[in-house]
Design goal:
It is a single chain. This protein is mainly β and 125 residues long. Helices cover 0% and strands 47% of the residues. The chain is built from no helices and eleven strands. Strands 2, 4, 5, 6, 9, 10 and 11 form a seven-stranded mixed beta sheet that branches. The protein is globular, with a radius of gyration of 13 Å.
């Protein structure tokens, strides 16, 4: 069973930047696609970015396109989320997750079988 561990969450001022990391115990078929999600209090979990770890191809939610960048380092089994121009509405618990490539670029959370424990990002105005 692949395990994912996020880190990098912090409290920052609006306009600041953060880089989140998600270290996987391995990249296997169960987490060939890796995604970042977030959940703010009282809101549904939201998909932010997905990366296909083999090729590095990416897909982004419109809400973060141009501000957030997902990347990976296969040698370190790590996926990153670089966040810039942070806003108070970016405050949330951020999770990484992995899934099989059979689902293509689907955002459906149910298709992500591996989840990390989350890392908190708080953006103050």
């Amino acid at each position: 069973q692949v395990q994912l561990v996020e880190s990098g969450g912090a409290s920052v001022q609006a306009g600041g930047s953060l880089r989140l990391s998600c270290v996987a115990s391995a990249f296997t078929d169960s987490n060939r696609y890796m995604g970042w999600f977030r959940q703010a209090p009282g809101k549904e979990r939201e998909g932010l970015a997905i990366i296909y770890t083999d090729s590095g191809a990416t897909n982004y939610a419109d809400s973060v396109k141009g501000r957030f960048t997902i990347s990976r380092d296969n040698a370190k089994n790590t996926v990153y989320l670089q966040m810039t121009s942070l806003k108070p509405e970016d405050t949330a618990m951020y999770y990484c997750a992995g899934r099989s490539p059979v689902y293509g670029w689907s955002w459906a959370e149910a298709n992500f079988g591996v989840w990390g424990q989350g890392t908190q990002v708080t953006v103050s105005s």
